[in-house]
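Progress report, Aim 2. The chain analyzed during this reporting quarter is listed below.
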Amino acid sequence: MDAMDAMDPEKRPMLPRAGEGLSQPPPGRPTGRKCQGLVWFLVVLAGGLLILSGAPTSCLHSGLGLFAGGSDVFPAASSHHPPAAADAVASSHSIQSRSPATIAPADVTTSAPAPARTVLQCFEVDQPVLLPDGAAESDGSSRTFDGYAEKPCTVLLMRRDFAWSYNDPFIGKYTPPSCKFNRVVLNFTSVSHGRQFDRLALMYFGDTEVWRTSTAEPTNPPGIAWTYLKDMTEYLYFWKSPQTIIFDLGNLIDDKYTGIFNTTMTATFFYSDVDTATAPPSDLIIPISARQGANNAVSQFTVPRDNATNTVRDFPRNARRAVFSVSANGQGLEEFWWSNVLQSDIWTFNQTAGQLTGYSPFREVQVLIDGQLAGVDWPFPVLFTGGVSPGLHRPIASVEAFDLKEHEIDISPFLPLLCDGKPHTFTIRIAGINDADASAAAALTERVDESWYVTGKIFVWLDDDAGSVTAGDKPTIQAPPPVLTITHSVLQTANGTNETLLYNTGVKRGLLISARVVTQRGADTVSWSQTLTYTNKGRVSGFGYNQVNDLVISGTDEAAGFTTPPYKAAYRYPLFANSTYAVSDTGNLTLWAHVVQGKQVEVSGASVFPDGLEAFGGRARFVASALATRKEGVAGFYQSGDGKNSSGWGTADQTFRFGGVSKGGMLGDAPDVELYFRNVSAANGSVLYDFKRRWGAGKTEATALSGEEGKGMADLRAEYAAVEGEAGRGAMRVFMGRNDYKGEA
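Predicted structure tokens for the chain:
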């Protein structure tokens, strides 16, 4: 096998349970790690055909309601009806019966010519962004003109075709524009066609990462296009002076992978007098990275290969506030960390599916200062546009796929230590859980599998007097080990072969770090606290080839002291994923996946990053922002046993609500003012329904901006051919790590 044949297998496969009328894997069949061999080949072939054919995805409008704050039931009921095969879908607290929606073959055909294909416009649903002429959709599709007092200016930052671009990032020189500005918004636009997998992209100013995004997966010509608008005002420290821009989008091109990403990135600079509760841009930004910018190279740490540590020797002694932001996501074997099994269970299906990935389905990103824990990030489980099943993400990308958010940790309680004029170390570490040591209780690890891309940065605000020295007491750190709750059991067949693994993982952590800090402005007790909870119910069945995971990550972060107004963030990340793989007696291949993903975030106070209220009047109207979104998708791929017929489909429905809490409200309440609402459904690359409601600047009532429907589901049925012998759907684990040119995607 050459290197090309080993690249980018799209998610790990599994086979159906007994009793579903589908052929079973021989219990004694040896396979390699991550379900290699024939299963790998079939899934890679199917994924490749789906991409190469531009097989459309589809999206059922099921009238899904937005999950209510504090609700523990996830996913909610929808219009999917069960077929004969069990779906084994777990709710947040129990396993229930749930199954996929299907699209029936057409009863009649017509000779009418097929409509000409147009460029598929992909997008991520997000709240509007403030531009000089008013609020604009994050995908650039519409905006509200409110006029502007200061003339804006736009600068071209990058135009690059990323073909074979591993270890070949874009390098550009940035010079500040002459117009007056205090806000900056990026516009990143890309087009592509052909066959290609999703790619991660990182943007740097020198050594400092400032944005992390990923690509959509292209289709046959005319292909795809997408735009994402990103508020980058928090980086005014960089925008005010010349910089070296490094934009890394590793891609490959050959006779098999043909998709080139043609990209353009501009920045719009403008002045706005909007008053926000978020922190003003910092006076200094210190990178915590591999620091390769001087070599025109990327600066992310690859963990666990790298020791993600920097020693800072010149931390400013007159600092009055410091916030560490961390950017981290799994790649390769760690892309689907949330689907991993307990370390003690990785060999459960060694005779059938092979070794599974371990260290548990829990990950913690730790930030340490001089070896002491300063804070943690329990990462959002990002699904890239090839994740689980590509049909889930066309044209609606999953939450955060185009804008991987960073997590902020206020390290101000460490200022008396950091401002002493001595060198100090900053470390980023990725932890999982190891329960495989029979002589010890389960505990956090100091390493996981390959690999995580991580960087950090420190936003620093300074006292006006450059000669002042921040003093005070060393921080008091209350950070007991997290409470781990783990259960697991294995069900066997009559002959003693392992058939089903059930495992539950629960984690709770609390920490409080405080110190008396003395700055030019006086003395105060400064604190940083976090309270976090994690649950994940997993089931691996069918001799190791079926998987369901139902998880919820939730937390509350608070900073108090000099921070005015005090910073608080509450977040909840539910994710349900079920994927299936089945081969009928006649050799027909069926892939199917069902994913429900949610995100709830409420932010008040002096956040480093924009809170989204900028486009709606800022602090003059609201004291906190509240975002809640829920996306549900179903996707499938079919191929006949003779390989002559294949088809793919996918559905997605997303509801998104963004609101503000007025000065009379309290964080944790439902938003008392809805500022932006969107409900969108898509099927096979066509948007069926897209309803938007926005409360624009100067308006007092919500208005419907659009509510157009696309093709009805009856029309869509004509686009699918029947697959001979389709006997039902087993369960398949489509989660596969990717092995690419660099060993990572």
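The first strand starts at residue 89 and ends at 90. The CA atoms of residues 54 and 219 lie 4 Å apart. These observations will guide the mutagenesis work planned for the next reporting period.
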